[in-house]
Design the sequence.
């Protein structure tokens, strides 16, 4: 059977709209059990062990990863492996979060029994109120009755989308309760574009600074520029950054350059950045000012240079 482009588009739109409608129903359906589940996790002294079989298992892996990256220690345990030794990963102090649309997935029986035997709190997520998982759980979150996105109603689509959104809702609720900050997130996510976006200037800046006193001759300034390799030199007065000498300053003072002092050539009041500013902010400043370097100064002691960051440092770190 050949489908037209229009038919395929209509199907895609129907699926997305059906799942979106289910998410609205889920939001309206959430009740006290959601808050109870969050409170149970917050009270736990161990890890959240997330499990599920099949498509629910794939969602469980993602939920575990999201929890772990937002301040709630968690990992995924496959129910099949749990029955062959991995139940040892679920110990007193931990908490189990188990997902099953039907609530009767046979592979989950050993995990459920293990939690009951050792008094491990169990949060169950399912769509059947009379299912084994729901009946055995300390806290049960029921998924609302919403049709799967396929016309046959048998492919896990809407149900897994609701599970995924529910996991995100739990993670964010816990994250906000713990006052989890971008700095905390960066600790767990140092790599990739997200990690780069959260880098601070102090993470990239160089402490070996190109600095000279304002009274120093330009011969010394040229030597420092050459030695340090940043293409600039900072000029200090009484230990504070008073100015900067760039290639443009050298060109403007070509006549008699070597007879001048650094203070006579420098551009005063250069743009600076705080060490705790996001590296993205430093890049924005450099792009706006069409410069390649920024000195980082101590906000507690105005003007005291602490480091220098180059546009290439930001490029290598993936900030740009």
Sequence:
């Amino acid at each position: 059977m050949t489908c037209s482009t229009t038919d395929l588009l209509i199907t895609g739109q129907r699926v997305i709209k059906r799942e979106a409608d289910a998410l609205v129903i889920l939001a309206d359906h959430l009740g006290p059990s959601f808050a109870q589940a969050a409170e149970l996790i917050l009270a736990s002294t161990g890890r959240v062990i997330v499990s599920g079989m099949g498509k629910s298992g794939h969602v469980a892996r993602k939920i575990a990863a999201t929890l772990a990256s937002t301040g709630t220690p968690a990992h995924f345990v496959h129910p099949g492996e749990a029955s062959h030794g991995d139940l040892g990963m679920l110990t007193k102090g931990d908490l189990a979060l188990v997902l099953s649309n039907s609530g009767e997935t046979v592979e989950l029986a050993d995990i459920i029994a293990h939690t009951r035997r050792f008094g491990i709190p169990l949060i169950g997520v399912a769509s059947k109120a009379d299912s084994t998982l729901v009946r055995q759980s300390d806290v049960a979150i029921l998924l609302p009755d919403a049709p799967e996105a396929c016309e046959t109603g048998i492919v896990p689509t809407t149900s897994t989308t609701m599970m995924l959104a529910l996991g995100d809702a739990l993670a964010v609720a816990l994250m906000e309760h713990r006052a989890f900050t971008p700095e905390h997130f960066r600790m767990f996510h140092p790599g990739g574009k997200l990690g780069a976006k959260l880098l601070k200037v102090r993470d990239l800046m160089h402490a070996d600074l190109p600095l000279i006193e304002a009274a120093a001759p330009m011969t010394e300034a040229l030597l420092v520029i050459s030695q340090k390799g940043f293409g600039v030199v900072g000029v200090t007065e009484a230990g504070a950054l008073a100015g900067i000498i760039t290639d443009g300053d050298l060109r403007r003072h070509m006549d008699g350059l070597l007879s001048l002092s650094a203070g006579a050539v420098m551009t005063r009041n250069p743009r600076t950045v705080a060490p705790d500013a996001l590296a993205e902010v430093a890049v924005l400043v450099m792009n706006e000012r069409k410069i390649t370097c920024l000195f980082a100064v101590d906000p507690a002691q105005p003007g005291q240079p602490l480091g220098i960051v180059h546009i290439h440092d930001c490029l290598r770190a993936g900030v740009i």
Remarks:
- Residues 5-180 form a domain with the Rossmann fold fold (CATH 3.40.50.10490).
- The chain has two domains: 5-180, 201-316.
- The longest strand covers residues 240-245.
- The two ends are 48 Å apart (CA to CA).
